[in-house]
Specification:
InterPro entries: Bact_solute-bd_prot1. This is ABC transporter substrate-binding protein. The chain is of the alpha/beta class. It has 16 helices and 18 strands.
């Protein structure tokens, strides 16, 4: 039994103790080739061209075009209800996520978990309190708060050295408080009923106007057009800006600790999505996957082998809440190489002892990403020890639990023109919209900008994307 997938960094040694433990537990001879991600497609295509397609192939999210091409050629086994309903970690996958791996009406990919929960923005609550302001619930309120943060000395240091929104090049973060305003979300439709990309929508125009208004008041980062992401972060975490991005996971505790060292009294509130002009309110759902796997079509002729592959795959996707991450949970203990050998527990957290030696079986499975069932707390806050970072994470997750989520129609749909021209078009639109924000091009030119976008390839992208959307059976906006 063989598999192939990708890794970031160096793969585990070929025959580590974890590999032997895996094979002993499942009574198999199973090996997965883990290729550094930058060389993955080159290696994968060479292996397949050589006629030795593995039993399982793990793809990166940006490999959808290759995956769909091979699926259409019959390379992969359809994942039907009989398979899905037999394995808990597959049954837990929402239909909206499965739909992204449909080719000609059949599912061919098995997603690895990623959160559907949406990002938002955190605001300096202590600054609001100092100025007697409330947490904003609309763009008009946010505009007034941002201007007040710029002009009214919210940190009470006697200097006019603060401003509202921390933003960097490519209008990032986008401060979109719902899918109506998001650049990458196909929420709007044109006069013919076709979904269109947010980057050319009415919602995006309104957002660009919002930024232009703030730019005139010096209420956004003054040099945002040339500011990289690290320096954009620094605007907020050095105490200069009052509003910035917050995500369910992946926040930097070091950044937050740096801010609190400078401003020990800093407090934060998380902004809820704003009510949209169409009456909807909520987050844009994430794709729900970080990578995905496909099964060799030949496994259909070997049911026993297929069952073993799926048994192992399902096991490796078990979710262990923090309370179960200890040696008392035998599956957890095995997966990470045994307490005292593969890992140790420090302050309630697992610490790998010698990760470079391959002592833990987890690194030898095709997929080792836990699938968090719907309604289960993924415990993102457990990644942190700083109380205020823990709190903003909990507040964001609570909002996600209270609000609806929009599932974009473009998820899982490939446009050949987007693949070849999308990056160039995105750069063009970002540059022109940046000019509008700083006053180098009037926003009254929006209609002309949209026409330029369409002529440069946007019209063909819209045509191809809508063909794919219709093929998937997506008809109208899906909020859940």
């Amino acid at each position: 039994m063989k598999g192939i997938t990708y890794v970031f960094g160096n793969p585990a040694p070929l025959n580590g103790a974890g590999q032997k433990a895996l094979n002993d537990k499942f009574n198999v001879d199973y090996k997965v080739e883990k290729v550094p991600q930058e060389n993955f497609v080159e290696k994968l295509t060479a292996v397949v061209a050589g006629g030795e397609t593995p039993d399982m192939i793990g793809f990166r999210p940006n490999d959808l075009t290759l995956f769909q091409k091979w699926a259409k050629q019959g390379a992969f086994l359809p994942i039907d209800d009989a398979i899905i309903n037999k394995y808990p970690s597959l049954k837990a996958v929402p239909q909206e996520v499965w739909d992204q791996f449909k080719v000609n009406g059949k599912i061919y990919g098995i997603p690895s978990w990623a959160p559907i929960e949406g990002n938002s923005f955190m605001i300096r609550k202590d600054w609001l309190d100092n100025l007697g302001l409330k947490v904003p619930t609309s763009y008009e309120e946010l505009k007034q708060v941002a201007i007040a943060f710029t002009k009214n000395d919210p940190d009470k240091n006697g200097k006019q050295d603060t401003y509202g929104l921390a933003m960097g090049q490519n209008i990032n973060p986008d401060f979109a408080m719902g899918p109506y305003w998001q650049a990458g979300t196909w929420y709007h439709k044109d006069k013919d009923g076709n979904f269109i990309p947010g980057i050319m929508s009415q919602g995006r125009k309104e957002l660009v106007q919002f930024f232009a208004d703030l730019n005139k008041e010096k209420a956004i980062t003054p040099d945002f057009a040339v500011l990289n992401w690290a320096d954009t972060n620094a605007q907020f975490y050095s105490g200069k800006a009052g509003v910035f991005l917050v995500a369910p996971r992946g926040m930097s505790q070091a950044y937050m600790e740096g801010l609190l060292k400078l401003n020990p009294g800093a407090e934060f509130a998380v902004l809820a999505p704003f009510k949209q002009p169409d009456g909807n309110q909520g987050f844009t759902a994430g794709t729900g996957y970080a990578r995905f796997n496909a099964l060799n079509a030949k496994l259909a002729k070997d049911p026993e082998k297929l069952a073993k592959v799926l048994e192992m795959h399902d096991f490796s996707r078990n979710f262990y809440p923090a309370a179960q991450q200890n040696a008392a949970n035998k599956d957890f203990d095995f997966f990470y190489g045994g307490e005292g050998t593969g890992y140790k527990m420090e302050n309630g957290k697992r610490v790998m002892l010698k990760p470079q030696e391959g002592l833990d079986p987890s690194v030898y499975f095709q997929d080792n990403t836990s699938w968090v069932p719907a309604g289960t707390d993924p415990e993102f806050d457990k990644a942190y020890t700083e109380p205020k970072l823990i709190q903003v994470t909990k507040d964001l997750m609570a909002l996600n639990g209270q609000m609806k989520h929009f599932y974009p129609p473009n998820y899982g749909v490939i446009s050949e023109t987007e693949t070849t021209k999308g990056a160039e078009l995105q750069t063009f639109m970002m540059n022109e919209q940046t000019k509008m924000i700083v006053g180098q091009r009037p926003i009254s030119d929006w209609g002309a900008l949209v026409e330029e976008y369409l002529k440069r390839g946007g019209a063909q992208i819209i045509k191809e994307m809508n063909e794919g959307i219709k093929e998937r059976g997506y008809k109208d906006l899906v909020w859940k």
